[in-house]
Amino acid sequence: MSLEQEPEPSTLLAAPAVTQFVGAAEPILDEGPPSPIRLFLRKRGSGGAADKAFAALMLLCGLSIFAIVIFIFSILVVRSKLSIAQFGLHFFTHSDWDPVSGDFGTLATSLLALVMAVPLAMGVAIFLTELCPMKLRAPISFVTELLAAIPSVVYGLWAVFVLVPLMRDQFGTFLVKYLGWTGFFDGFNFGEGLLTASIILAIMILPVISSITRDIMLAVPNSQREAVLALGATRWEMIRTGVLRNARIGIVGAVILGLGRALGETMAVTMVIGNHPNISKSLFAPGYTLASVIANEFSEATGDLYLSALIEIGLALFLVTIVVNAIARALVWAVTRGAPARIG
Amino acid sequence: MSTNAFHTPPPNGEGEMRAPMDFQSRRMRLNSAWRYAVNHAVTGLAVLSTLLVVAPLVAILIYLVYMGSSSLNLAFFTKIPAPVGETGGGMANAILGSGIVLGLCSVMGIPVGIAAGVYLAEFGRGKALASAIRFTADVLNGVPSIVMGIAIYSLIVMRQQHFSAFAGGVALAIMMVPTITRTTEEMLATVPHAIREAALGLGVPKWRTVLSVSLKTASPGIITGCMLAFARVAGETAPLLFTAFGNQFWSFRLNEPIAALPLQIYVYAMSPYDEWHRLAWAGSLVLIVMIMVAVTLVRIYASRGVLKGAS
User: How much is the ipTM here?
Assistant: First the structure.
């Protein structure tokens, strides 16, 4: 490094530099010989040009993130022009070619997954931040984050060979026997279907929701907890009034983030949802999600129109997840003040 | 934020508040018994839910190791897939293909991601533009991977008229950038200002300060971020479906379809052949072991790193 090679000049010349700065800054350049420190800086280069170039390069890379978003949006719009022109925006409300069942399946599986995952994730976050002994805290949060590191295709594989037979043979018959009267469990139970997809989705979004909720609950100041405890509250009352109430905005954000994940999850869902355009009240019925339509039909998309319709589905998925994530991030940021939520 | 926690009226109601509270009254005792019961119930529920969350992980891992290890052999690492009906065969080309695609995406994604993080932490403090980039990165992080795949398909594959390893690499690189940007920024923010000021005060140019002081101090954390992003994209299947596409044979060229481990697992899992199911399990085990080894190594490395002492 240049620092070690030339330490002397800067120390030697400290005094003249000070006197110069005490005087006027600009005129000295014109009068008399340049100061020794200026000579030194000129010799080794002040790095002004290099600094500017470096800053510009970094800025460029920063701006590339905007560029990525804009480019994804524009390329999807351009390539799906054909289908937008053909079907217009009624595309998602008519069922001629049937992406409607994709809408329905996406919403149904995502919401069902949220219903299953949110209470569990809350429980985990509460346990980890408020109840858990310090020794257990690190290993358990490590395990929950490990859940996030498992690739979705492996979840899918497990679901196909373990969860589907389980749903078909044991759990499914149990549901039909005790909850069959609700009408949600009619029809033949293949094991594959909306319910199975929702369960695997719930398992997959759990770590996302619980780790962000945990971060948010940790951001609640301890004085809140102490104040409530000092009034004689039990631990649960402390958690409810002191922690959950203060963190509620961020928790809503975490849940919406989980929703964003669930909406776009592709592989595991494609593998177990049954892939059949179908809108049915029964949770055993095979269905479709937006992402699984794309994954499943892409290889058989022959005509230009077919292809551009699939790309339009991708565009819709992109816009929906952008909006959902923007709302969620804004809520999470409101609580954690810009600290990033850590995933993975 | 602090005052709104106590909007609920006290449980005894307004009337009793005037008289001094009698803690021995029957009502108070019942009330407190109820409160403690609720407290214990909630504690129990929290523990139960934690167990319920850990259970599937353990179940998946045990089943995976059981199924995978029984079908893992040397051929898996040395042979390409056998034709339908023949036993044997492996996924050597898929492992190599994954390596090529991941190397490609790391080369493209890591420098851009780190540089963007450097901009946010070192040059953009307090600027509106930086906040906007930060927000966009977080939002981009949540865009489904299949959308990335279909966008790259539209851009590269449709133009070139064929699937390619290069397209797969670009799709994964785009997924890596936002994650790496945010972790880099987070890690650079933990570097104490005094170190930067010391370097700048000695006359070191800003770019040199950033490269040799800030980035070097934060390097363990940044490496962790890169490895986590790497582990995330290593298991991605959806963006590769229409970019790298998969290949049953050896392929080394970047402009040809190439096999990848997650893709191969997907194809085999959805096939009707037992032999292929066996290979899918083995492939999953290999994939997950590689990812977990990476993540765990990084955790150990990061916990011993410079930042541990600094923060």
Answer: 0.79
C-alpha dist (Å) from residue B298 to A120, A152, B11, B225? 28, 21, 51, 9
Rounded alpha-carbon distances, angstroms, from residue A248 to A29, A219, B38: 61, 12, 21
B114 pLDDT more than 90: yes
A4-19 burial, b at 16+ Cβ within 10 Å, e below that, comes to eeeeebbeebeeeeee
Q: How far is A22 from chain B (nearest CA, A)?
A: 18
Give the mean pLDDT of chain A: 78
Residue A78 lies in a domain: no
pTM value is: 0.79
Q: Tokens for B249?
A: 């044979």
Question: For A170-193, what is each residue's pLDDT tens digit?
Answer: 777 777 777 766 666 766 777 788
Are both A320 and A256 inside the same structural domain?
A: yes
For residue B235 the two structure tokens come to: 């298991």
The whole-number average pLDDT for the span A265-281 is 78
CATH number of the domain at A325, please.
Answer: 1.10.3720.10
Q: Report the alpha-carbon distance of residue A330 to residue B302 in Å, rounded.
A: 29
* Structural domain for A65, as ranges: 2-70
Q: Is residue A173 part of a domain?
A: yes
Closest Cα in chain B to A244: B5
Tell whether A287 and A243 lie within a shared domain: yes
A297 and A196 belong to one structural domain: yes
Q: How far is B259 from chain A (nearest CA, A)?
A: 15
* Interchain CB distance below 8 Å, B120 and A161: no
B 36-95 residues with CB < 8 A to A: 36, 38-39, 42-43, 45-50, 52-54, 56-57, 59-60, 63-64, 67
- Given A55, A70, A85, the domain boundary residue is A70
Question: Letter for the amino acid at B98?
Answer: S
Own/partner contacts of B60-64, CB < 8 Å, gap of 24 or more, are: B60/A150, B60/A154, B60/A155, B60/A158, B61/B288, B63/A158, B63/A162, B64/A154, B64/A158, B64/B281, B64/B284, B64/B285, B64/B288
